[in-house]
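User: What would this chain look like folded?
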Amino acid sequence: MHKDITIYDIAKGVGVSPTTVSRALNDHPAVNKKTKQRISEKAAQLGYRSNLFASNLRRQRTHTIGVIVPLLNSSFQSSVMAGMEKVATAAGYNLIITQSMGTVGKEVANAKTMYNSRVDGLLVSLAHDTGNIDHFEPFFRKGIPVLFYDRVAEHKQSTSIIIDNVQAAYKATTHLIEQGCRNIAHITGNLKVNVYADRLKGYKYALIDHNLPFRESLVITNGLTEEDGIKAAGEILELKPRPDGIFVSNDFCAVNCMKALKQAGVAVPGDIAIVGFNNDPIARVVEPSLTTINYPGYEMGEVAVRSLINYLDGLSDNSIPNTVTLRSELIVRESSLKMKPEKQPAAAPPL
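Assistant: Here's the prediction, encoded as structure tokens.
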């Protein structure tokens, strides 16, 4: 294997000192243009590669931001990544992206990799089964900012970027009630995760405010996968009385639940109205199109990276607990419209 070319090799080839080569490659004004040109040409001829990592370490900044996501194969996370990439690139930062596969064990390993890679800051959406965040303590002790988004944890040295999941779930459930639903099921994920716990709260609050009883039997908890959506449909078909509305905590599970119900002869929305969550592209193309909550993933990615860079540049104080809450909205489509358009209730004012 060929050894890496160093500034000493260039200096020997040009007949100048290594210090002059270093200054020339960094465009220092003390080196004249002619010498800079000779050094640049020799560097290109020898195949010299600048060691940006070592250079950045001397400056105590690597200009890399670590990102840990549960799974990359989701429309929401892809949208978040696009927003992150836009802001990071514009600010001269690179992203190192890893996925925890939704498990805390892999998340712990990812955190260690990010720490050893000397990232300037870390953006994290927690795994399904993360019980505590002790594995991020090395970052906090070192003063490396950690920002949580979507699936978050509270820590006095971190910032969280979220939507108001309670309010969003309240809107979704209230919409079903306004369509005449009185026996509404809720399909949700691991209730230890903040987003699912908050959506359950919003569902409960909507029922209470409309004088409808909350029944544990109408709450189905699973992994929100394709298979879970199909399985949930089977459980709903067995319920007595059968639900006339379903609020599902993600679109992918909602779509597969809806398909399984239709295959069993259930009319959607005639027999059962359905609302999902996230506004994934699949929600627009399925038949009937899926009513859902728009989750601003791209904006969340932009805000997350911008907040982190502001801290790194000394423009904000990450020692102060801070939560940034983004707006979400209900997008009404065919899957929930039991009532004819002329009978639709007046739209509620934005909260």
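The CA atoms of residues 26 and 36 lie 10 Å apart. If you want, I can go into more detail on any region.
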